[in-house]
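Form 12-C: Joint structure prediction
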Amino acid sequence: MTDDAGNDRMADNTNMTHDDDTTTGRRTYRRRKVLAGLGAAGIAGLAGCGSNGENATAEPSSDGGTATETSGSEAVDEAFIEEFRGSGALAQNRDIGGTSIAELPNLSGDLTIYLGGGEGGLYRDLIARFENIYPDFSAQIRASGTADAANTLINEGPATPADVFWSVDAGSLAAVAQRGLTATLPSAVTEPVPLEFHPEDLWVGIAGRARSVPYNTDVLTAEEVPEKVMEFPNADALSGPMGWAPTYGAFQAFVTAMRVLSGEQATREWLNGMQESNVTQYSNEFLVSNAVADGALDAGFANHYYALRVKAARPNAPIDLAFTSDDAGALINAAGAEVMQASQNKQLGFTFIRHLLSAEAQEFFATRTYAYPMVPGVPPVGGLPTIDELNPPSFDLTKLSNLEPTLRLMRETGVL
Amino acid sequence: MSADSSEPNPVGTASDGQFGRLRERLTGDAGREQPDTALVVLAAAVATAVLSPVVWLGWRASRLGIGEAIRLAASDTAVDVLANSLVLVGVVTAASVALGVPLAVVTVQTDLPFRRLWTVLAALPLVVPSYIGAFAYVSAFGPSGVLPDLLTQYGLGFVTPYLPTVYGLGGTALVLTLFTYPYVFLTTRASLLSFDTTQLEAARTLNHSYPRAFRRVILPQIAPGVTAGALLVALYTLSDFGTPAIMRYDVFTRVIYVELNAFGQSRATLLSLQLLAVTAVILALESRVSADTSSGYGSPASASPVVSLGRFRWVVTLLPAGVSLFTLAFPVGILTMWLVRSGPGYSGGGLAFEPAFALNSAYAAALAAGVTVLFALPVALYAGRSNSLLARAVERSTYIGYAMPGVVLGLALVFFASQWLTQAVGVGVARAVYQSLPLLVFAYVVRFLPQAVGATRSSVAGIDRDLVGAARLLGETPSGAFRRVTLPLISPGLLAGAALVFLTTMKELDTTLILHPTGFTTIVTYIWRVQEAGYYGRAALPALVLVAVSGLSMVPLLKGSDDA
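Section 2 - Result
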């Protein structure tokens, strides 16, 4: 972030709608069935735009794409947003709406932030950008695992030095909020976000992450991947090598969701069934996705963005994403944030979260972490289905915090 | 640490004459057998302060209730952790003996080519903090390391899932052995050097072959030295946090850290006490062994080689060369490679190294050095002047830092400051203390006070106390005499102690990680952060800096062993 960017921010940009950009940049999202194939047919998808690098904009907006209407007319200063946007084919030709940082109150003062997770440093990167924009703003960061951070906050109670808790897992946010340790977020903070991602206004979603099934396009098609994750152990199409990462938090959250949705016995049978059908263990889901792209696996279990990271590094890799429907395999978890009740600095905390929900920050999450933006004006990258097009189960994310029975189940079945 | 060659001070034992009695009359109760009350109080206060965390921990545990304590201690996890820890300690100790003893023998008793070079190189792995070693090995052989990268480059990527994992017992034991065997090497070497070679010659004239003579004559005499080194290795292995944490092997320190982060307070507290108990057993063994080692007699030692290796000279050289390859060339090479290779990942300020981190490290270390020396001074003066039970108790209690793993200390201070203070005193006080720099510095003081006391005490012992008496006779006040006579005489010891504490604090991992104020990034917490995120390239430069810092801190130890 340079001084130029800061000056740009100050410039009046309310009348800087780029109509020409808008027409070329607007993208269309086809219905889930096709998009689940994510370019299997070479259109509108990741594989398409990656392999020949020309079709990144997908189709013109002829049939009125569903999720891309910018809310209001304020398009965001392009030069400024470039500072936040990622690079590569997936980040090209994007049309962004939503509230710009320029329209938000300034950040000023010291803010102590507990980070749960943090996308390998990307969250720190974003905070550093804010610090560069606002010379009077300084953030003190303490990072740990999501459950660890939540437990720390619960045990510190009113003695906590934290002002804001920003975590990649909604379960951890809810666990802290349940103890009455967080402040109610004003509507100015939560207003841009769909209601299911700020259920009681004690925390608010910042970016979404969907469970998915990365598969090798040389071996499988999206249609061959069963609609229901419970059918996987017995599916003929999936009799080849599969991969999972049972020590990985997101996978454990998926098993927790299965336990809650389908019951303990069904989950136990599913875990045993998968183990009997040639599943290989990896230490994280990026490696699972990588192995799918290498052809070592036919398919696997991973958060959606890992396949996009593989694609970003190796545009021609034969990998694509399928999504199951209305079950644990289609869970959408949210990264989010909340303000601590004990904070002496709540107003700054609220303003900080509003910055996380600004068009620029949402673009940052969309194009650098390939997460699902929470603000309707910012589309997800690379032909991913929009959140509306996915069919996640109805599930109270708060329940993800009850991890212990999941771990016990995974140990008993020998998965862990 | 460095053993002073000063004679035991004769004053106060034999030469008590007229002068002494006169002085006693003049100075009242400030005679040498009864040091100043103020000094005693100060020294006792220091001892109480450094003992307080362990006392507090015991008190907390005692409130758990016997039933709960037994249930937790007998739980599967706790039993696993104990078993894992003991296995690791056993393997590392045995492997260190297997590596350290032969190295010591070939560098002391044979005509190995370049003996001095290999002696230095064999001791040098001590300067690599073991967590840096673990980092180097994981960044080479781990899932996103150099080896899988190379395999992928040459189209062998499919092999990667079948490679043996670097994580777990194997990797942890390997790394700990490579970087702690020098303890065995150094103590064995010292024993061999003080070994009277005429005995060996006598055995040889009785027609014993060298191996037989070694077994019957040498081994019994160096056994205490080997054991002492092995116990040091065991102690280090037990208390080390970084290596098992990076290599993902569930021993006491790692599980305590995990439980601490999850605020599983009762479990963490009990595991800490178990760890302290195992540590105490090893320490008790060690104090018995080191008491034995002092019984050396015989003709002056000879350092000249006694065994000619003949044409095997160059073959045997492979041993020290091979070890140095894995302990020194490989880690430094890997770190340098990461340094040269442009780091992967995202640009931007999030994970970039900032000079401020180094300044923070130096600032905290300087504070720790200053405060530690201030704490050490009364203890060293008191222990140096009095042989009373209390004086010995005070000195001994400051050695708690050696026995207390950083994880356990961190845990005690975190629970004390965040929860107990909130309940017992109030949120305001808790907020002021918890995650504060003074609390971190206090932890450093507890950990490293023994180093400063050791360095200062030897110079206190070297003071001719008649000089102080003379100053008093010439009309100086007690504090004036201290300032003008005692302080200048002990200042080299104080400075040496401060320097040692400074350097050791710079590379201290566990307490820094647990207690650093939020937002206060040091070199060590930065390395930890980027290695956890897998940005190995970014950790290379700070890691090399720490190796250099650590090297400086080892100078007294290595020099001391050379003198032996």
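Section 3 - Comments
Chain B has two domains: 28-56+355-520, 65-293+311-343. The two ends of chain B are 13 Å apart (CA to CA).
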